[in-house]
Write a structure and sequence with these properties.
Blueprint: E1 10-13, H1 18-24, H2 30-40, E2 47-52, H3 55-63, H4 67-77, E3 83-87, H5 100-112, E4 117-120, H6 128-144, E5 148-154, H7 163-176, E6 180-185, H8 192-205, E7 210-214, H9 221-230, E8 235-238, H10 252-258, H11 270-290, H12 303-307, H13 311-323, H14 330-343, H15 353-367, H16 376-383, H17 395-401, H18 420-427, H19 434-442, H20 444-458
Parallel strand pairs: 1-2, 1-8, 2-3, 3-4, 4-5, 5-6, 6-7, 7-8
Helix pairs in contact: 2-4, 5-6, 7-8, 8-9, 13-15, 14-15, 18-19, 19-20
């Protein structure tokens, strides 16, 4: 066999975002991250994912930290490495669609504060919900030469999701002006030989670099990466070993070792990676001791492949049934999930569509009659408020749940008025930086609680003594 051309695989390190989001509910504080940044910066990662996803909400709500401040500190530390974030299309990092001016402003401030690569996804893979974020990134790139828009496709299985579907979508993403494509396999459904087939077909259809993101939940992820890299994938997402596997990603060191001495050799220094692992290991032990890291999320859950249901969705469902003393209905609900998914146009199961489908399936089983009671989110999906699904929704269910109501066929955000000025007016008493308006836009109540806390810290007020009810703070 002739000498193969060298094609080192890129690695995106997820320890500062998805790894701890998946294993310890996004509770890693900034102070824990900073001491290891200098070492991480020497590795030669394709990028470090460190922001977006649930980090924004968790920072404000649980850690009493300003997420923008975290980003600036990480940017100061990473001199040579690109920083990456996860962005939910028109929903940004919140749970409702925002007007285009909020999306534009958020993209601008993310890049200004240090983000290089924005990974943008939509829970229905409705590309219309991604276009504005891509345009906003490209505008800044044209002006300042910074910013990279990556569109992530939520990977899922079902009749509609043929190889042709993925290939056509890849072509459309290229036409939209994205810089790269990510296959985002949130439930660990992509098995090794299917990955090789998918990457091979997409590589033929588009010139864009392709990145693969998966979770170890179903136990196949490392093998999936191996086959994907052989098929030509450009970048894979990995987590340093103390926070790898389980519901997180395959371990960085293992993948580096796997490709050593092959054309895909990363060239990473295992001694440096070991330093990073040694740094995070005591924190892992601490999280296990406190119960923040549950051994339950570290195993393999093959049910993910059997039911195509992400791990988080399964645990959600179990607790809903427990509350109703209906744990014996578990199998019935599992059987109902694919039916509800079909009724709603076969969306991928990812936040928030996974929660919507799961909760509705629980209701359908417990009520003894399908759609006797529909959640407000189910109604919103049927109305088209989340966007276009790949298959038509069930007309019978539409007639039962939202009879006679008008449905949205345009891009949902087209119906929204610009809202930045209104948001700023509402929160101006708390504003200390432009970014505060965006924090408020995404999580109004949580942000205001944080702003009050921040002010108290700045004025050295003892909050335990404060009369919060009447707004009087003794100094």
């Amino acid at each position: 066999m002739s000498e193969q051309i060298k094609k080192p695989v890129g690695i995106t390190e997820t320890i500062l975002r998805d790894a701890h989001q998946s294993l310890i509910a996004t509770r890693m504080p900034t102070d824990l991250m900073l001491p290891i940044v200098e070492t991480m910066d020497k590795i030669g990662y394709h990028s470090v994912e460190c922001w977006g996803g649930a980090t924004f909400d968790a920072s404000l709500r649980f850690l009493k930290e300003d997420p923008w401040e975290r980003l600036r500190k990480l940017r100061d530390g990473f001199k040579n490495t690109k920083l990456q974030m996860l962005f939910r299309g028109q929903n940004i990092l919140g749970y409702r669609p925002y007007a285009d001016d909020v999306v534009d402003s958020f993209v601008e401030k993310s890049i200004a504060n240090g983000i290089d690569i924005i990974r943008i996804f939509d829970c229905l893979n409705d590309l219309r919900n991604l276009q504005e974020a891509v345009n906003a990134t490209n505008k800044i790139k044209a002006r300042e030469g910074r910013g990279h828009a990556q569109i992530a496709l939520s990977y899922t299985l079902g009749d509609a999701y043929t190889l042709e579907y993925w290939v056509d979508t890849a072509k459309k993403i290229e036409e939209m002006g994205a810089d790269s494509i990510c296959i985002k396999d949130m439930a660990g459904l992509l098995v090794p030989y299917k990955a090789a087939e998918l990457i091979g077909a997409m590589k033929e259809a588009t010139k864009l670099p392709i990145q693969l993101h998966t979770h170890y939940t179903s136990g196949v992820a490392s093998m999936t990466y191996l086959k994907a890299v052989e098929a030509g994938v450009d970048v894979i997402d990995c987590a340093i070993s103390p926070f790898a596997l389980g519901t997180s990603q395959p371990a960085t060191e293992v993948m580096v070792e796997t490709f050593k001495g092959t054309p895909y050799d990363t060239g990473f220094d295992q001694n440096l990676l070991a330093e990073i692992a040694d740094y995070f290991r005591p924190y892992r032990e601490k999280c296990l001791e406190s119960g923040l890291l549950s051994p339950k999320v570290l195993g393999v859950n093959i049910k993910t492949l059997l039911y195509q249901v992400p791990g988080g969705m399964l645990s959600n469902m179990v607790s809903q049934l427990k509350e109703q003393n209906a744990e014996d209905k578990y199998e019935d609900v599992l059987r109902e999930i694919p039916n509800v998914r079909k009724d709603l146009g076969e969306p991928p199961l990812v936040t928030p569509s996974s929660q919507i489908v799961g909760t509705q399936a629980v209701f359908n089983v417990l009520m003894g009659e399908r759609y006797k009671m529909a959640t407000k989110e189910t109604k919103a999906v049927l109305r088209g408020e989340y966007g276009q699904t790949i298959k038509p929704m069930s007309q019978e269910v539409i007639d039962k749940v939202i009879p006679g109501e008008e449905r949205i066929t345009c891009r949902p955000a087209d119906l929204l008025e610009n809202e930045m000025d209104k948001l700023e007016a509402e929160m101006k008493e708390w504003k200390q930086q432009d970014e505060d308006v965006l924090s408020y836009a995404l999580f109004p109540q949580v942000a205001v609680d944080f702003f009050k806390y921040r002010q108290a810290q700045q004025e050295k007020v003892d909050l335990t003594q404060a009369d919060t009810k009447n707004g009087a703070y003794p100094v």
